[in-house]
Specification:
2 copies of one chain form a homodimer. Chain A has about 140 residues and is α+β, with helices and mostly antiparallel strands. Chain A is built from 5 helices and 6 strands, in the order ααβααβββββα. Strand 6 of chain A pairs antiparallel with strand 6 of chain B, so a sheet runs across the interface. Chain A binds a DNA duplex (30 and 30 nucleotides) through helix 4.
DNA sequence: ATAACAAATGCACTTCCATTGCATTGGTTT
DNA sequence: AAACCAATGCAATGGAAGTGCATTTGTTAT
């Protein structure tokens, strides 16, 4: 089991108290979070710091950004060995319109999408909206 | 060939000069447009009017909203017989990262997506990012 | 035709999220 | 300990979405 320090170190991210707290927060959340979610969890911290921390995590492929159609960007930890930038590794996201949570369905890979001649596909974003398992029960 | 008046009438939308102009603008554009695009095309008109006109068109299923991941909502005319609200009728959208245009690929239907037990899928949004035919040539 | 009503438009304003500039703090290295 | 660079905090900006209200325009009924 890797420690948080080891994760950050392996990605060449300087270890700070703030970053460790935010990372821990993301691990504990099983759903994608907005910047405001993080802000509410760390009221003492400045919004900019949280924003830039997430941006750093994103650049270093620790978190990936999710646009679930609510208009607010969400973030979630990447899988251990995920290569978010590789098309074949893309998973889909589920947005529950009832509880407003967005979940990475990492087991559900996106099927091969064909595009017309002349188009070059580099990236696919797929969001399914509906009712999640917790809300449908 | 239906006239613009006939289209609006058939959808129970009151005919006004502004609405006809905006509809015509959407027809002529072959790509999805932002509110700002419309705003720039009609500098004399008020933004709110354009905003509400698009909302009206949306409610009456004349246009559909597209979230292509740029963070800015885009709109495009529905196909003649499209039922945007029906899941099986969903097509995918292509966003060109070069020219920033977003195109409806109405011929490319979204494949059946499976979600885990307990999840209920109501809607699917699929955006492919890459290079469009005009830019790749 | 005109009065009465409803819908459409225009203006002003607000809110929310994303983002940036700059000053300050804190940690590393020599 | 000095110098340096990265991280943080504060303040402010910008852009898009959305709302309230007054005004104009179009429709309907008398």
């Amino acid at each position: 089991m890797e420690t948080i320090e080891q994760v950050l170190e392996s990605k060449n991210i300087r270890i700070t108290a703030m970053r460790m707290l935010i990372y821990k927060f993301l691990v504990e959340k099983e759903v994608a979070v907005t910047l405001s979610d993080i802000e509410n969890a760390f009221e003492k911290a400045d919004r900019t710091t949280l924003y830039r921390t997430i941006k750093t995590f994103e650049e270093k492929d620790i978190v990936h950004q999710i646009d679930d159609g609510t208009g607010i960007t969400k973030y979630a930890l990447c899988e251990k060995d995920c290569n978010c930038e590789i098309e074949t590794d893309l998973h889909l996201h589920f947005h529950c319109t009832n509880c407003n949570k967005t979940i990475c369905l990492t087991e559900n890979k996106i099927p091969k999408i064909t595009v017309p001649d002349g188009f070059i596909s580099e990236n696919v974003n797929l969001v399914v909206k509906g009712i999640c398992d917790k809300c449908s029960g």
